[in-house]
Design a protein that fits this description.
Strand order of the largest sheet: 11-12-19-18-14-17-16-15
Structural class: alpha/beta
Largest sheet: 8 strands, mixed
Radius of gyration: 30 Å
Helix content: 40-55%
Distance between the termini: 53 Å
Number of strands: 19
């Protein structure tokens, strides 16, 4: 069993260039990783593979039963109630493998992002589809949940398409990886680490080939110019202009040189060089090198004049039937804080409480786990309403976060990763005193994560990050707010 995509092309409405063009790829049984920068069309290709979106041109076949797990799990799966009431062997195994609690389906909207993701995956696996697409399944999840997801997905024996920037997940599941960029695709065998190593070697080889072709083009251009000038001089010497009509000897010598062809050599050589120049120019144009943005972002920001931005009195926050005990907390003007804890321990609830209690006048940039549609529309509208200078700065920041800024101006289709970058770039314009980001690396490609890490580490103001990414927190924060369970079901936050 395999799924074939043939000559697929797709262009977003209002976009000037197609996001996909001439894509032909085969997905065999087993897991195939799909990787690439934010906005390169991974989700669009997956939705075409599932039959959710029709391509502008091309075909998908054969007709198979498909299931698609979207990046955003906030909307309940369509078969959630059926799964909740099922007591067959598969449903029981999935409930155990993903550590699902009986009441979760009935209070879906109150669950954490990681808990919703586990239920979403269980509902999809329970349908036993021929084709299963998982779009960023480990967003929002802690280390324990990640292992549970890997174990559950490893049991799937159909055609699996995994869109992810999680290297451990890709290495644990995939036998081949599809690399996407510039509207085209390349399938490479092996796990992500193996395929990525091969991609790096290919890019380095392409860079060398392009540099060699560029040097050859420069050399040939100089030589072609020299020979054109020589040909022009010879052409001037062939002219009878300036020779008197009655100077028969001079005219005879000039005509004799033309007949013998000695004066045509320079012109012929110039033509040869021009032909060689055309060939090397074509070769240079054919060598494609993936564009990377590696520069640091310069933030026009400085710490607040207030020594302390906010103080929170001890309180208890309700989390369904549990409570989170919060001690006296404060955020100083240049604190970099990492908020950590397992899924369902109230991290997002605490952040929302903190934002609601923020004193008036404190400039705060808050980017939630999943921006609402209203927030996304506001971000797109803000970008359109900026003057040219401010818009240029925003697009420059987006570019340095490893995205093509032009895509943000082409219609209203912006990937979740690009939306986060846009919201951060827009927020930077207001010189915030405090940046709060809830799971900032969700939906971000690896290059974007590294760029974000650099900018947040250098940010001079106050920072609060909610994340399961230990590497990000280690590089950007120096204070930990940790939520733990005491074994009796009680949750408490400690400052480290």
């Amino acid at each position: 069993m395999q799924l074939n995509l043939s000559n697929i092309a797709y262009c977003y409405p209002q976009a000037t260039e197609p996001i996909l063009r001439g894509i032909t790829v085969t997905f065999p049984q087993g897991w195939t990783g799909v990787v690439g920068d934010n906005g390169c069309g991974k989700t669009t290709l997956a939705r075409i593979a599932c039959g959710i979106v029709a391509p502008d041109t091309g075909a998908v076949g054969p007709a198979l039963v498909s299931a698609y797990c979207a990046q955003d799990a906030t909307n309940p799966p369509h078969n959630l109630q059926d799964f909740a009431l099922a007591y067959d062997g598969l449903a029981m195994r999935l409930q155990q493998a993903l550590a699902l609690e009986d009441d979760w389906p009935w209070r879906y909207s109150t669950l954490s992002g990681g808990q919703q993701k586990r239920l979403q995956i269980a509902c999809a696996l329970w349908t036993e589809p021929d084709v299963l697409v998982m779009d960023e399944p480990t967003n929002h999840v802690d280390a324990t949940t990640r292992e549970e997801i890997i174990h559950a997905l490893a049991s799937f024996d159909g055609i699996g398409i995994l869109i992810s920037h999680d290297r451990a997940l890709l290495d644990g599941l995939c036998d081949q990886c599809l690399f996407m960029g510039n509207g085209s695709v390349t399938m490479r065998p092996g796990s992500y680490s193996q395929a990525s190593g091969q991609a790096t070697l290919e890019r380095e080889s392409a860079v060398r080939s392009r540099e060699e072709a560029r040097r050859e083009k420069t050399r040939i251009e100089r030589e072609a110019q020299r020979r054109r000038e020589a040909a022009d001089r010879k052409e001037g010497q062939r002219s009878l202009r300036g020779i008197g009509k009655h100077d028969g000897d001079a005219r005879h010598k000039k005509r004799l040189a033309i007949v013998h062809g000695t004066d045509g050599i320079a012109t012929k050589q110039a033509g040869i060089m021009q032909s060689r120049l055309g060939r090397v120019t074509e070769k240079l144009n054919q060598v494609r090198v993936e564009k990377r943005y590696d520069a640091d972002i310069w933030l026009e920001a400085e710490p607040s004049r207030r020594p302390v931005l906010i103080r929170l009195e001890p309180t208890q926050l309700l989390l369904g039937e549990r409570r989170l005990s919060v001690p006296h907390l404060y955020i100083s003007r240049n604190d970099h804080i990492g908020l950590v804890g397992d899924n369902g321990f109230g991290k997002t609830t605490l952040v929302k409480h903190l934002v609601a209690c923020m004193p008036a006048g404190v400039r705060v940039l808050y980017i939630p786990q999943e921006p609402s549609e209203k927030q996304q529309r506001a971000a797109r509208r803000s970008l359109r309403d900026l003057d040219s200078v401010a818009r240029g700065r925003v697009l420059s920041i987006v570019a340095q976060l490893n995205s093509e800024p032009e895509r943000l101006l082409e219609g209203d289709v912006i990937s979740p990763g690009e939306m986060r970058k846009l919201m951060l770039a827009l927020g930077i314009l207001d010189s915030p005193e405090l940046i709060i980001m809830d799971e900032p690396t969700n939906h971000l490609d690896l290059g974007s994560t590294e760029a974000l890490e650099r900018v947040l580490a250098a940010y001079p103001g106050a920072l609060l990050l909610v994340s399961h990414d230990a590497a990000l927190l280690g590089a950007t924060t120096n204070i930990a707010w940790r939520i733990r369970e005491d074994g009796l079901g009680n949750l408490a936050l400690t400052v480290e």
